[in-house]
Amino acid sequence: MHLINGQWQSEINASDRAIQFGDGCFTTARILSGAICHQPDHLRRLQQACEVLLITKVDWQKLEHEMNMLASETPDGVLKVIISRGSGGRGYSASHCDNPTRILSVFPRPAFYHHWRKQGIKLALSPVRLGQNPMLAGIKHLNRLEQVLIRTHLEQTDAEEALVLDSEGWLVECCAANLFWRKGEQVFTPYVDKSGVNGTMRQRIMSYLKGSRWHCEQVSEPPETLADADEVIICNALMPIIPVRQVENWHYPIGALYHFLAPLCE
To answer: Is this model's pTM higher than 0.85 or not?
Structure first.
């Protein structure tokens, strides 16, 4: 069952634009001890996405109440919040779409994240590349077919996550995580201004690194730049941070950057 516009149900109107066009956005947050981790970050993400998508009339106060209500009933888990433009309009036209749809769902948090954090993971270079679209880059909209294909190819490998490039061959992210790597005192993360998602944990890590011994820089680099990296990590709101032990044939230790960020990213 899902909480849809305040009602527990498992069905949604077939004319909803989330189904018809993927017309909406979402966020996925960790629930810990009955509270949503970094809730303001997730609300801000949804609000920014709705601004880009020109989705109006979202009842943010009601949504926040619903998020807190579900979290209070869950000691440890995952909260997914979807906002669609709702039903209405003809074809692609968004006219007369005056009632956005709120969909809230709670799931168990993946148990394997704990093992990943202790052992590290392997990334496999994905053959699926992300298209560039500066208007939609950064936000977590509902059009996730690229990620579905990335995940499908990943499942044919022995790696835990995918290393994803854009259509020009630049590093962007993983299938469901953002990417950082360290060379000496310098930390790098790919730009997400043309494709990819500007994850909430990515933003937090960049903030944590300000004033630290490491300087963080956004870059456009090919995958070969990872060949001489001292350390590679990935992150998202649920993991929240995982060390990478191998990318293709390149190997890395669990290093100082991970140990600095891990207690901050609980």
So the answer is: yes
